[in-house]
Amino acid sequence: MSWRPTYRSSKFRNVYGKVANREHCFEGIPITKNVHDNHFCAVNAKFLAIVTESSGGGSFVVIPVTQFGRIDPHYPKVCGHQGNVLDIKWNPFHDNIIASCSEDSSVRIWEIPDEGLRRNLTESVLELYGHSRRVGLIEWHPTTSGILFSAGYDYKILIWNLEIGEPVKMIDCHTDVILCMSFNTEGSLLATSCKDKKLRVIEPRSGKVLQEANFKNHKVNRVVFLGNMKRLLTTGVSRWNTRQIALWDQEDLSMPIIEEEIDGLSGLLFPFYDADTHMLYLAGKVHITPY
To answer: Which of 83, 156, 200, 281 is in Cβ range 3.0-4.6 Å of 272 for a Cys bridge?
Structure first.
């Protein structure tokens, strides 16, 4: 009788990233030197947006994804904020709409022309003020058009209805700076990680905290929902300061399902999950690892 392995081999287990050819890269972009831990870039089917280094306020460039090569130093920018831009996110329902938040305590909505920018864009479609301190994170609701979430250094999450330009709800359950926000597929649950070392699962409509974890062996930094699997994936550090990931049941955060140490390097790991292939990508400052 022939021997067969008892495990199922993954066809993705030897996937490695490959650097694109130089002619398919973007060069010469003065990327921001801000120490705020965030992506500082966003991409959709039409445009690539990157937060840039600038004086006299925050700005970011928006480049058509087909416009490869070296970018002119005087390339037009989106530059209406009075402080550094801390986060940018494209509207999932409209490829030409992008939201930004800044140290100036504002959230702004911009409309990018189909052909891209020909001159600096200084006038936003909407200016949203509601936070008392700088705004570090923004997330669009995944299933409802015109709903935007913002998290500020005032420890609050505001839910904005962009049709009226006003916040319709405030979630006030955090005791320190919110580090990350992630929605499940339907947008019925919001997961957050916080500087108070707690992982929370919140019902956005009511603002009620459904689950909360404060696990001493795993200090959570970033969190992402794994599609419709009812699982959460967090990146963080162990009690020995090694970088690790942890898998959680969204309905029971008393203990992680599994923990895995990655390495002893410093720096955050940003998780990105592809629901179509069930691939998890961990991005650091110098590398990207698929799982």
So the answer is: 281
